[in-house]
Amino acid sequence: IKSMLQDHNVLVHCQMGMSRSSSLVIAFLMKEYGMDYHNARIYAKNKRKIVQPNEGFERDLLKCEDYLKKHHPN
User: Fold this and answer.
1) Spatial contact of 48 and 13, defined as CB atoms under 8 Å apart
2) Does 17 score more than 80 pLDDT?
3) Active-site residue numbers?
4) Exposed / middle / buried, residue 48 (Cβ in 10 Å: 0-12, 13-18, 19+)
5) 63 pLDDT higher than 90
6) From the CB of residue 63, how many other CB atoms can be counted at a distance below 10 Å?
7) Is 26's pLDDT higher than 90?
8) Rounded CA gap, 33 and 52, in Å?
9) Is the overall model pTM greater than 0.85, yes or no?
10) Where does the pLDDT of residue 74 fall: very low under 50, low under 70, confident under 90, or very high at 90 and above?
11) Which of 15, 20, 72, 73 reaches 20 to 30 Å from 62, CA-CA?
12) Got the DSSP string for the chain?
């Protein structure tokens, strides 16, 4: 995603576009732009209204947030 964004728009999709692909985009925002889960989710939802990670992905994203805070502080 990162390398393609330099010169192009990037489409990330899954069957419904609500949970799986949005979770990937949220994780990308968290890692590359230092956003916390809450702000990354709001940003993604503002771009695509149906963004809604399922409970399992949300748990994983919150774990990812903790990991990033410990290992990649801004």
Assistant:
1) no
2) no
3) 14
4) middle
5) yes
6) 11
7) yes
8) 20
9) yes
10) low
11) 15
12) -HHHHTTS------SSSSSHHHHHHHHHHHHHH---HHHHHHHHHHH-TT----HHHHHHHHHHHHHHHHHS--
